[in-house]
Amino acid sequence: xxxxxxxxxxxxxxxxxxxxxxxxxxxxxxxxxxxxxxxxxxxxxxxxxxxxxxxxxxxxxxxxxxxxxxxxxxxxxxxxxxxxxxxxxxxxxxxxxxxxxxxxxxxxxxxxxxxxxxxxxxxxxxxxxxxxxxxxxxxxxxxxxxxxxxxxxxxxxxxxxxxxxxxxxxxxxxxxxxxxxxxxxxxxxxxxxxxxxxxxxxxxxxxxxxxxxxxxxxxxxxxxxxxxxxxxxxxxxxxxxxxxxxxxxxxxxxxxxxxxxxxxxxxxxxxx
Length: 272
Fold this sequence. Notes:
There is one protein chain. By secondary structure, the chain is α/β, with parallel strands linked by helices. 45% of the residues lie in helices and 15% in strands. The strands form two sheets. A seven-stranded parallel β-sheet has the order 3-2-1-4-5-6-9, sandwiched between helices. A two-stranded parallel sheet has the order 7-8. Strand 5 (142-147), helix 5 and strand 6 form a beta-alpha-beta unit.
């Protein structure tokens, strides 16, 4: 299927590693020129060189902190100027898990750390969308995809639950506001996802359980396990990217203001 993406221009925050990098790679493979954004310049530049060599597309590294409105505005302006416009924004610029002092029992939550987590993921996405939307309005075409997480549906992690739930609300609100300008806005909920961090985490989990590292995934992701899913394995970051790239495409007009859960069928709840 031709997704109608060749010649489009995108920004992917959190694009130097993990899910963001996988999304940037798949967009570039579809013929999109991409600006990848993160705070660490060296990693950004290395990823940009890697993806450009792999895909033949322009991949521009732009260092920015999404907690700063000034930096976000400058980053979006630079991306649009260097790419010749802007069609797609993927908000993936938040480390998984949140601050250790904002995720536990309420008695131990540090207010400043909770507010920082919220500022990065929710307000950061809002800042990026606010800066990007005028460029999309000019063209009468745009796609915004927010990468959230299934902690929005699970009690326990106060930081992730608050941030991810809020990001879903932002998605619907923006979709209603900007749909008339040819812009769709959607949200993706990844669950536990294989990224560069996974081997280290699996090794730690194997040590905790006293089993071989190769046995951890089959054990933890069996359907009857608390962490299990229907496909009996971890979802790969590339598979989150496939979903995101479709939502960014010209074939996805019918989907806006929606949440797509990409966990491999984790959980037993029925949503309707």
